[in-house]
Design brief:
Blueprint (H helix, E strand, L loop, with lengths): L6 H11 L6 H4 L6 H13 L2 E2 H8 L3 H13 L3 E5 L7 E5 L1 H22 L4 H31 L6 H15 L1
Antiparallel strand pairs: 1-3, 2-3
């Protein structure tokens, strides 16, 4: 296998380099783990938001989001307000402390994003985002098809695979 021409491997390398805890500027702002930072950034960008929506948007499994939410609640960075219809559903928002951290993280992330984007001209950036959209959709489709083949064989699949199937069905309706 030629890993330098293996798309998933190359995407994983870039993902590893861009991990939030790899960036010392970002890591110095808080003692949060990357999953907690991703969830905090998602809440700050879309609040009020439900955990299920964070999982879907970021393609993190719900148990990962749930663990991050527990940490963020314990650190008083977020608040959870019950839904008016279903008390099991909580709408997540940032607290004052959370807003402060969100702004610090956003301010630290923006120059990095601009520096990374600067290697592409506007046309390349547009094509790149279109390619990412296609790759994301195909990856989701492949994983969903694998999970469905297990289900069709009468095999039990783990919760994260069931969630992946829900996401895939949801994305097909959009």
């Amino acid at each position: 296998m030629n890993l330098s021409e293996h798309l998933p491997y190359r995407v994983a390398i870039v993902s590893n380099l861009l991990a939030l805890n790899r960036d010392l500027n970002i890591r110095s702002l808080s003692n949060l783990e990357p999953r907690e930072m991703r969830v905090l950034l998602n809440i700050g960008s879309y609040m009020p938001i439900k955990s299920a929506d964070i999982a879907y948007q970021s393609r993190l499994d719900s148990s990962t989001v749930s663990r991050a939410v527990k940490v963020l609640l314990a650190k008083k960075l977020i608040a959870a307000k019950p839904d008016s219809v279903s008390k099991n559903i909580k709408h997540l928002t940032l607290t004052e402390l959370g807003v402060t951290l969100y702004k610090q993280l956003s301010n630290a992330l923006e120059p990095r994003a601009q520096a990374l984007e600067s290697v592409l001209n506007d046309d390349e950036k547009q094509v790149f985002y279109q390619c990412l959209t296609k790759i994301e959709a195909k990856a989701e489709q492949l994983l969903a098809q694998q999970a469905l083949s297990f289900v069709n064989q009468g095999l039990e699949i783990p919760a994260d695979q069931k969630e992946l199937l829900r996401w895939y069905k949801k994305s097909q309706q959009s």
